[in-house]
């Protein structure tokens, strides 16, 4: 395990707040985008990470919460349908729904979000179900109820699953033509896309579809990400040149070799990426399993962890707010019993915006044990 000694500049990135209105967390290990560090105190104020400090720099009168285990940023699921009101999320009578906002489909108190938090997932990118050429605008939300980005991307599909007899588009050429027409005279969501006020979420299931999606994005100068293609790593150089990121497909038991190979290729090329979850159809634990499978296939442990946190943080509309333990970021934190890339490690406690939203049930002490 790589252990870092954080520089003085990193530890003093923000002034240490007064004792009265702060929480000082001192775990055994702290996971930053650069690696794992010891002897670090995470200072939380008003739901945000105010500073990283060394233990000996904490005021003597401060109450420091000693934590056993590894403290990380919460994981981020790219592409998910948890807790969504289906009536708001899809209209099968229309192929283009560029004015739809999935934030309106967000059901804040849905039980799906309890399951996500229990697995260490603190943000999800709500995406439309497949079946439309443009399914609306994504939203980055938190299980605790906050909407981080109500309009993060405009969804555009390049998937052949769109093509149905008797309904346009019936071919790739027809789909591209429909999209080009809307880009030529942009209104609604397409106007926001052209103006750079939202990014593009480009759905593609195959390498050929991903190639078409990347070419469309380059033609129109679009920022965003491609999701759904297991072999997208074959296009790593093209994606690096275009500036697009990637949401790799959701993990399934067996048959993930192409996803693992793509993750390696994207990492080597410097392309930011994360993983889709597509819950509630999949168990939330599958998000961490996707990254762990990449580690078993040879990926650097820290790179795999970043693909669950800082990588998707930069792609989901939460840039600078979620995905990292760093000054200024939201205090979305997870305490693990061990290194999170070890699947034997379990979630002990979860904070969202500095508030505890989940605590694992601890075994009761047996009679005679020290209390």
Description:
It is a single chain. Helix 8 packs across helix 9. The strands form three sheets. Strands 1, 2, 3, 4, 5, 6, 17, 18 and 19 form a nine-stranded mixed sheet that branches. With 371 residues, the protein is of the alpha/beta class. The chain is globular and about 70 Å long. The N terminus and C terminus are likely disordered. Helix 7 links the parallel strand 14 and strand 15. It has two domains: 105 residues, Urease, subunit C, domain 1, CATH 2.30.40.10; 241 residues, Metal-dependent hydrolases (TIM Barrel).
Low-confidence stretches: 1-19, 365-371
Distance between the termini: 33 Å
Q: Sheet with the most strands?
A: 9 strands, mixed
The SSE order reads EHEEEEEEHHEEEEEHHEHEHEHEHHHEEE
Assign the CATH superfamily of the largest domain.
Metal-dependent hydrolases
Radius of gyration of CA atoms, rounded to a whole number = 21 Å
What descriptive keywords fit this protein?
single chain, 371 residues, alpha/beta, Urease, subunit C, domain 1, TIM Barrel, 2 domains, nine-stranded mixed sheet, six-stranded mixed sheet, 11 helices, disordered C terminus
Write the layout of secondary structure elements.
Blueprint lengths: L2 E2 L3 H4 L11 E10 L2 E3 L2 E6 L2 E7 L9 E10 L1 E6 L5 H4 L22 H7 L2 E6 L9 E2 L1 E3 L5 E3 L3 E5 L14 H13 L3 H7 L4 E5 L3 H14 L3 E4 L8 H7 L2 E4 L8 H13 L3 E3 L9 H12 L4 H6 L3 H6 L17 E4 L10 E6 L2 E5 L12
Parallel strand pairs: 1-3, 2-6, 7-8, 12-13, 13-14, 14-15, 15-16
Antiparallel strand pairs: 2-3, 2-4, 4-5, 6-17, 8-10, 9-12, 10-11, 17-18, 18-19
Helix pairs in contact: 8-9
């Amino acid at each position: 395990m790589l252990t870092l000694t954080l520089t003085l500049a990193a530890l003093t990135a923000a002034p240490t707040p007064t004792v009265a209105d702060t929480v000082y967390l001192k775990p055994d290990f702290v996971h930053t985008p650069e690696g794992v560090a010891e002897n670090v105190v995470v200072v939380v104020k008003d739901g945000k990470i105010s500073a990283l400090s060394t233990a000996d720099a904490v005021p003597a009168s401060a109450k420091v919460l000693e934590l056993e285990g590894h403290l990380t940023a919460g994981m981020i699921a790219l592409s998910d349908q948890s807790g969504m009101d289906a009536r708001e999320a899809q209209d099968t009578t229309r192929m283009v729904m560029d004015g739809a906002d999935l934030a309106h489909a967000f059901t804040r108190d849905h039980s799906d979000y309890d399951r996500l938090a229990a697995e260490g997932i603190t943000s999800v990118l709500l995406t439309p179900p497949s079946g439309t050429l443009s399914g609306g605008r994504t939203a980055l939300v938190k299980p605790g109820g906050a909407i981080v980005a109500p309009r993060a991307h405009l969804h555009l599909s390049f998937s052949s699953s769109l093509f149905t007899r008797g309904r346009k588009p019936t071919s790739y050429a027809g789909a591209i033509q429909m999209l080009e027409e809307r880009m030529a005279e942009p209104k609604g969501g397409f106007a926001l896309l052209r103006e750079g006020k939202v990014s593009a979420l480009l759905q593609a299931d195959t390498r050929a579809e991903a190639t078409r999606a990347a070419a469309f994005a380059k033609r129109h100068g679009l920022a965003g990400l491609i999701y759904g293609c297991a072999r997208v790593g074959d296009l790593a150089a093209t994606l690096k040149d275009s500036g697009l990121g990637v949401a790799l497909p959701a993990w399934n038991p067996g048959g993930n070799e192409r996803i693992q190979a793509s993750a390696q290729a994207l990492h080597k090329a410097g392309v930011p990426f994360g993983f889709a979850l597509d819950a509630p159809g999949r168990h939330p634990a599958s998000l961490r399993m996707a990254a762990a499978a990449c580690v078993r296939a040879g990926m650097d442990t820290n790179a795999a962890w970043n693909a669950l946190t800082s990588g998707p943080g930069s792609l989901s509309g939460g840039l600078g707010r979620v995905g990292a333990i760093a000054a200024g970021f939201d205090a979305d934190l997870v305490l693990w019993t061990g290194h999170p890339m070890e699947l034997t490690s379990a979630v002990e406690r979860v904070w969202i915006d500095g508030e505890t939203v989940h605590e694992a049930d601890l075994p009761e002490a047996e009679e005679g044990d020290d209390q």
